[in-house]
Amino acid sequence: MPARIAVVIPARYGSTRFPGKPLHPVAGKLLIQRVWDRCRKAKGIDSIVIATDDTRIADAAKAFGAEVAMTSSKHRSGTDRCSEVAGLLAEFTHFINVQGDEPMIDPSLISRLAKELAADPRIGMITAATTFGPDEDVKNPNAVKVVLDRESNAIYFSRSAIPFVRDLDASATYLKHQGIYGFTKEFLLQFVKWKPGRLEGLEQLEQLRVLENGEKIRVVIAKTASVGIDVPADVAAVERLLAAR
């Protein structure tokens, strides 16, 4: 069966830090539309679906031409919402989960994840990381770090700075995780059946559920990090970046 790949953009209205975030205007367009526009530029993608439980988001998305899937309001994460869509789309084999607050997501990164995921049957889940810049604080707990094995599979994700450098004369390259994921359908449906583990609970990082169950996550290194919108104050910074393009 040839690979058929869908991008799913989970979007919820009730963000604690930024209620109504998907419908907030960013440089003249709704945030969710900007994410959708970027995903449309990715190559090798057969469908793009906005997954939401809110009719306001659904109506707005349909108005600018997006395909929409109404999903349960009980989902705790975007991955859960993505898995419901995967269960509805029988003809699709792979899914890329793009966060709905990433208006500057790199289309070429989406394409790269999709291509590598579909080409290697050993990969059930794939994600991305970038190298920390010299001005970035590796101790910032909101910037998730990841360490890799020799085959570019994740060994661990942490909010702490890993690896710890014990020798003061040594140096380390720190990798910052990017919140984009790709899955085979089978892996995604299995992921949401696993119960959250102890490490996931401690770090509050759902990808640790995969490692705690003995499975692998392939990590590709991206050249640049996407700039997301977490709180209202982030909007102005993203608008400045868009204007500078």
How would you portray this structure in words?
- By secondary structure, this protein is of the alpha/beta class.
- It has eight helices and eleven strands.
- The strands form two sheets. Strands 1, 4, 5, 6, 7, 8, 9, 10 and 11 form a nine-stranded mixed beta sheet that branches. A two-stranded antiparallel sheet has the order 2-3.
- It is globular.
- The mean pLDDT is 95.
- Distance between termini? 40 Å
Beta strand count = 11
Query: Could you state the order of secondary-structure elements as H and E?
Result: EEEHEHEHEHEEEEHHHEH
Helix proportion range: 25-40%
Unreliable segments of 5+ consecutive residues = none
Question: Which term fits the overall shape?
Answer: globular
Largest sheet: 9 strands, mixed
Integer average pLDDT: 95
Structural class: alpha/beta
Radius of gyration, in Å, reads: 18 Å
Please state roughly what percent of the residues sit in beta strands, choosing from under 5%, 5-15%, 15-25%, 25-35%, 35-45% or over 45%: 15-25%
* Tally of helical runs: 8
